[in-house]
UniProtKB/TrEMBL annotation:
InterPro entries: CDO_1, RmlC-like_jellyroll, RmlC_Cupin_sf. GO terms for molecular function: dioxygenase activity. It comes from Pedococcus ginsenosidimutans. This is Cysteine dioxygenase. Keywords: Dioxygenase, Oxidoreductase. SUPFAM superfamilies: RmlC-like cupins. The keyword Oxidoreductase applies. Belongs to the cysteine dioxygenase family. Pfam families: CDO_I (PF05995).
Length: 161
């Protein structure tokens, strides 16, 4: 893959959003993904598949009813692909939430200022591959209060996950 430099961010190399989605698609084809996470766990479990300064790849297992809560990925762009089950992504724009369903084989990419909540609203566990560039440094957490999105905190990578 070719690494491109993002305008306005001197010295930070990033993959394009389409490259991030293609990377998630490639990793999703691994027939041994299941061995890295517990699909029977009561809470979300995750496993970092690979990481460099410029690219980070995660596998996440989603029990029924689990969700991430509203968050962004600080300055990282990203993509994710549903490997098993169906995930619902709620994104925030124009002062309201929008829902997108992502069944098996469906994915999406997003920019560095994308705020979303991803959930397994189905009736069976789900599995997904997530790719970020540059590697995650943390996540900003949000809550919907009075019809607006409010910052509730920032998690630093390595401290809470």
């Amino acid at each position: 893959m070719t690494i491109t430099t993002t305008a306005g961010t001197p010295g930070v190399n990033r993959f394009t959003r389409s490259q991030l989605l293609r990377t998630a698609q490639l990793f999703a084809t691994d027939p041994d993904l299941h061995r890295h996470v517990d699909l029977g766990a009561a809470e979300r479990t995750w496993h970092r598949l690979d990481a460099t300064e410029h690219l980070e790849i995660w596998l996440i297992a989603w029990p029924v009813g689990s969700s991430t809560g509203w968050h962004d990925h600080l300055r990282s762009e990203g993509a994710f692909l549903t490997v098993e089950g169906t995930l619902a992504e709620h994104s925030w724009s124009g002062g309201r939430a929008h829902e997108r369903l992502l069944p098996r084989g469906e994915g999406r990419s997003f920019g560095s200022h994308h705020v979303h909540d991803v959930a397994n609203l189905g009736d069976s566990p789900a599995l997904s591959v997530h790719v970020y560039s540059p590697a995650l440094r943390g996540m900003t957490r949000y809550a919907v209060l009075g019809g607006t999105l409010q910052v509730t905190g920032v998690e630093q990578a390595g401290e809470q996950w």
